[in-house]
Prior knowledge:
There is one protein chain. By secondary structure, this protein is of the alpha/beta class. The chain has 2 domains: 128 residues, 3-Layer(aba) Sandwich (Rossmann fold); 191 residues, Rossmann fold (3-Layer(aba) Sandwich), CATH 3.40.50. Helices cover 32% and strands 14% of the residues. The strands form 2 sheets. The chain has a 7-stranded parallel beta sheet with strand order 8-7-6-9-10-11-12, with helices on both faces. A 6-stranded mixed beta sheet has the order 2-1-3-4-5-13. β7, α7 and β8 form a beta-alpha-beta unit. α1 packs parallel to α12 and α4 packs across α6.
Amino acid sequence: MEKAVNTVNTADTVGTAADGAVDIVAYGVVADERPLLEEAFRGRHRLRCLDLVLNRDTASTAAGCEVVCSSVNDVLDRETLTVLARGGTRLITQRATGHNNIDLDAARELGLSVARVSSYSPHSVAEFAWALALAVNRRVARSVTRTRDFDFRLDGLLGRDFHGRTAGVLGTGKIGAAFARIAAGFGMRLLGSDIAENPECLALGVEYVDRDRLFAESDLISLHLPLVPDTHHVVDADALALMKDDAILINTSRGGLIDAHALVETLRAGRLDGVGLDVYEEEAGVFFFDKSMEVMTDDTLARLMTFRNVLVSSHQAYFTRDAVGQILAATVRNVEDHLAGRTGENTLVPPPAPR
């Protein structure tokens, strides 16, 4: 996939808009997403796509746009939101389910309404989590690197059957349930942990246990929790110490669920059979961009990349045509709801009441 660069896309606003159209600027738009986003708004509103991160330094580029369409790695803190509000923005609609990057209290005080995408294809993320799990377990990356050099040895490529082993699903909502269904297909014993039991998971045979037991008994642990204060660094040094030495850890949810420093120390000690990370706590400004010609200043991320049993991908688990299509359809609805004065399941901060 073509990678985005840290420059402002100066292309003209696209599309012939209908009556009542507003100006929309979308941030963090990657190459494969842009034509889909443009098509979603074509004939409805005037859209400008930028491939830069939205933060306090770049927020002035939204001046005059009533709607800002943000990405999960944008930094919508009080300072950024203040600049947006002064520039005429009235709606922030995020192309993601997570919204821990948005200061909702500040948005409310500034009179900004905020919406997100409350759900999209859970299969996209669950299937990618399994892609990472299988690749880590069967040493796929190492094997492919070797065979490109015509090295066809099997040394160091020994994996394990998942059949008959224990999968721990931390977070059993729609995505966690989809992950559990696939695990059941492999013939795995299923453990789950969440604030509420999912009937669909119970029907699959998931046994709900406390987090400590899940960490201690699972051969494969996959994280599918939202990032909230209670889940921040849920995988910390204590949790990692409970895990089996040959366990596999997968995170396709939010980077802040894992204490990356503790993970590095665990791997340095020779523990864990493998780790698959599609997200990273400090990924903003790094993931989605081409950093190949720059010095990597994040020592923790650089260290993680040196372990042969760690795979890091660039927050792409959601990135299927099906899921992106659903995300963009929901984003269009968020804009139409805003203009009509409606709220819905995607609304995080409703518009201020008329005075």
